[in-house]
Amino acid sequence: MSLIDQIREANRQAVAERERRRALKAWARARAAGAVGEAAMPGEARVPDTALEDAAELALRPERRLSVFATPGGIGFTLLLIFLLAWPFALPGFDPSTFLEVQKILAAAIVVIGLNLIAGFTGQLSLGQKIFVLIGGYTVGVMTTRFDSGMLGNHWIALVIALALGAIAGAMLGLPALRVKGAYLSIVTLAFVPIFYTLFNSELFKPVFGGAQGIGDIATPIGNVARPPNRTVTFPFTGNAMTDIDYYVFLVLIFGLLFFLARNIVKSRWGRAMTAVRESEIAAKSSGVRVYKVKVAAFMVSAAYASLAGALLTTFSTAQISPESAAAIHIRDSFVYVVMMIIGGTGTLAGPLVGAALVSLIRVMIPKVGELISFDLKRWTTTLLAVLALISVVTAPAGTVGIINDRIARRRTRRRHRHPEPTPPPLPDSLVRPKPRAGAGAAGGGDVVMETREMSKIFGGLRANDAVSIQVRRGTAHSLIGPNGSGKTTFINVVTGVYAPEEGSVHFAGERIDGKPAFVTVERGMGRTFQNLQLWRRMSVIENVMVGMHVRVRSGFVGNMIRTPRSRREEAEIKARAMGLLQFVGLAAMADAPAGALPYGKQRYLEIARALALDPVLLILDEPAAGLNPAEVHDLMELIRRIKATGITVFLIEHHMDLVMGVSDRISVLDYGSKIADGTPGEIQANQRVVEAYLGAEMVEA
Prior knowledge:
Layout: H1 3-33, H2 51-60, H3 72-86, H4 96-121, H5 129-146, H6 155-177, H7 182-201, H8 206-209, H9 244-266, H10 269-279, H11 281-286, H12 291-318, H13 327-344, H14 351-372, H15 381-395, H16 399-418, H17 429-432, E1 448-459, E2 462-473, E3 477-481, H18 488-495, E4 503-508, E5 511-512, H19 518-523, E6 526-528, H20 541-547, H21 557-562, H22 565-585, H23 600-612, E7 618-622, H24 630-645, E8 649-653, H25 657-663, E9 666-671, E10 674-679, H26 681-685, H27 688-695, H28 697-701
Parallel strand pairs: 3-8, 3-9, 6-7, 7-8
Antiparallel strand pairs: 1-2, 1-4, 4-5, 9-10
Helix pairs in contact: 1-2, 2-22, 3-9, 4-9, 4-10, 4-12, 4-13, 4-14, 5-6, 5-12, 6-12, 7-13, 10-12, 10-20, 13-14, 13-15, 13-16, 20-22, 20-23, 22-23
């Protein structure tokens, strides 16, 4: 054995011993809390049973609030903040001529961080961010000039109100705008620009907004304008005037705070919900995510960030605010923010800062390059930025930071291949074993868990489902079969709330649910998979399952943003639970891999694990064997039997007859949208109408 191998073996032994001690300590804490029994005690004579580490340790020891600062990204960002804070005081190269540009970059980065939350992570592109910047600037201008004395005239109170008004404006504009998608949403948000431009520029509101001249003499730190300001920003509670460097320090601290708040959102259940909405709204709804609520929340935060950035920019940059010469200027500026996001990296945390810095540098360099070639390039700045954004979208869709992240991920993958990680340790049965939830939906309805009564779904003149009545009894495996086009998937979409029936009713756990949105059925304990896979391919395997537990935790948006103890405790618990469910379906070793990198059969199992994360009363599997080979179908049959053994009711839609006959207690058959048979597997096999539906009457007669 070489020296390197000996060192590696020694490290493995040291890690094993450390894990054993941690497991014993975790078991002691869990035993004291009543979370595990005596049988879970890790024996001294065996390798540590890290059922305790992954269960009790994760549940009882949530991630520390400031643990992000120990990650490579957290360390790098902290060093950047230290550099920015020390730049005017201790570092060489401080140039007052570029001082204002650095502040503008930080303010632009704040705007783009908010834009990235709504566009990069939630997938809803807004082209009206400059409007929220103006709302923040006008808020500070109105309050510090129209209220010369008292609390409302205080600059710091004005910043808080600018933040709040930005969020309110985001909600008011987002509620109607977010009812449309894609290009329509972009057009609607773009229409905000001329509307607000007219409002700020109108003679009717001139006493408030100053009309075309705008508002001057806004409170500003000393040294940021060419003329001596009539009003200065003072330190809170002291009344001492702030210098421009003092305000710069405040701006850096605010930027750091807003960045980490955005990071906390992205890494929380709300961030996973936003990403789920971006990649597949249908799957998000079926996992209990209230899609519209998530969109509006992201839009509000995005608007609040832009409004605060506008208030800060107006304060340190110009000490005045006006609607400028034309609405086209605001449209251009909104477009520039989008370019910053694209070049920096859409859907990345560091992308807004990188994009703001690169685009600002390019805008400064374009006139200088024009002077060198004796051509006025300044007029072409917006056009050149548009070309640059187009090139970036084609050659590097993930942006600058995305390229770096991709290379880091590839390096980690190669490292895993060279040095495979050990198989994840076994988890306690309480985390691995799926279980039907207790409470709403668990006890209602008696023996019948789901029932349709004369339910019909009509598309135009086509009756996809015609007066279908089916009862699914609790604790059974009930299959729905029929030829292609018989209306099976339509039936499931009606039951799960994707469609509303035109006739009849749908009942779940004794409650009528037809016509209610999909998240209502999920909250009552109905989980489902899809005929066509609906995974969030860019999210990791474990994150896909954690989204499935979105409705099982209660920490709110603000709690996740500031990482309250409750939110951190819930995050640890659902991560442990998600790992247990991955172990149940055999995917624990792939927990950190992107979902899109899994083989097709494993993706089917992942979708089942995500549905089980709901702790469902009823699990609906829509053709889970589609695309699987015979060995995988056999494994799927065993998995369904194990799910049924936990007490979860299984409703299966499938064409694979061996699977259907092997797991079903009862089978219903559809043909041309109508139910033609209902009975045990033996009865269905002997039913003449079923045989004719599959083979045709002529073939049966022959």
